[in-house]
Design brief:
This protein is mainly alpha-helical. The protein has helices at residues 2-5, 11-48, 64-73, 85-101, 120-141, 145-176, 181-186, 206-219, 231-234, 244-269, 287-308, 314-345. Helix 3 (64-73) crosses helix 10, helix 5 (120-141) packs antiparallel against helix 6 and helix 8 runs antiparallel to helix 10. It is globular, with a radius of gyration of 21 Å.
Length: 346
């Protein structure tokens, strides 16, 4: 895109305009997708519970999310008297902004990527780890005990599952031999018998794909791991004192993070923008359509789990992270590295 603008402008201005245009091309469709995916989420829950879901505002209820957004936008933002006002207002902005930043290194096609850096996976891991700060700051700045308890839960939950996610990503990096997101996708081509794409068909890394999916639910605080919003003991968790657009930003940030985890599942384990089969006619379909299809499939799993699986107790949440996922992911680091060394020696 920079070369296109260089026909009329110097390199510095061309790079700036191309970068801003790339950010808008990702951020604006993503925000629209977040609004529509909330509608899809509610429809899936309704179908699971034999209800109709949103069906009044707009055709088939498609405009329900926009009506809800307009409603909260017109409401008054209430700041508790004892709250730290600056941090209280900053927390939801931080959560939503961090959720958007990670999309900079997600490849939508072979060349459709905002920043094709050689440490893309490390960037995603670092940015996703920052999201919990929005929750912690919200709980502390509200000057209320239930949001503060929720923030402490969020920090413990994030630490517990970030460790296992780190070991899972080590397995992926060792197998692909690169931290570059496009490189990880391309390494999945013609993986088994020149037919299937994607690590999901690799028996060695398939357990890691399943663990990453479950850990992604815990990282995004989705059911059955939504202990930070446990209404039975914490009212509404860290967002209890929030209203208006501040409350809506948490919802938008949560769904943007869920879509990011779905995109990471598709990119790291299921071929990303590659078609599911190594068959020439399938490459006629643009790569971003394959990626969006895989993201939607994983989002359906997220919604399915939320509609059907009851919430864990907190001790069950911690036990799964520390006593199951951590040892298993560490074991697979040894297994994958040993297998790679044996194949190299053979």
């Amino acid at each position: 895109m920079t070369e296109f603008f260089q026909q009329w402008l110097p390199y510095e201005w061309s790079w700036l305009i191309a970068t801003v245009a790339g950010i808008l091309l990702i951020a604006l469709p993503l925000m629209l997708s977040v609004a529509m995916i909330i509608y899809v989420d509610r429809k899936v829950w309704a179908a699971m519970a034999l209800r109709r879901g949103p069906n009044v505002v707009g055709p088939w209820g498609l405009l329900q999310s926009f009506a809800d957004g307009l409603k909260v936008f017109l409401q008054e933002t209430i700041v508790p008297a004892g709250a730290s006002k600056g941090l209280f207002l900053l927390a939801p902005i931080l959560t939503f902004t961090v959720a958007l930043m990670a999309w900079a290194v997600i490849p939508f096609n072979g060349r459709a990527i905002l920043a094709d850096i050689n440490v893309g996976l490390l960037y995603v891991l670092a940015i996703s780890s920052l999201g919990v700060y929005g929750t912690i700051i919200a709980g502390w700045s509200s000057n209320s005990k239930y949001p503060f308890f929720s923030a402490m839960r969020a920090s413990a939950q994030m630490i517990s599952y970030e460790v296992s996610i780190g070991f899972i990503l080590i397995c992926v990096v060792m197998y692909a031999g690169t931290f570059q997101m496009n490189g990880i996708v391309l390494d999945q081509r013609e993986h088994i018998l020149g037919l299937f794409n994607g690590y999901g068909f690799n028996p060695l890394l398939f357990p890691m794909a399943v663990m990453f999916l479950i850990s992604g639910m815990a990282e995004t605080q989705r059911a059955p791991f939504d202990l930070t919003e446990a209404e039975s003991e914490l009212v509404a968790g860290y967002q209890t004192e929030y209203s208006s657009m501040s409350f809506a930003l948490y919802w938008l940030g949560e769904y943007a993070n869920v879509l990011l985890m779905c995109a990471l599942n598709a990119t790291l384990f299921w071929g990303g923008w590659l078609p599911p089969l190594e068959w020439a006619p399938l490459y006629w379909i643009p790569g971003w359509i394959w990626l969006f299809g895989k993201i939607f499939a994983f989002f359906f799993i997220f919604s399915w789990v939320k509609a059907t699986v009851p919430r864990y107790r907190y001790d069950q949440l911690m036990r799964l992270g520390w006593k199951v996922f951590l040892p298993v992911s560490l074991l697979f680091v040894c297994v994958v590295s040993g297998w790679l060394m044996w194949r190299q020696g053979a």
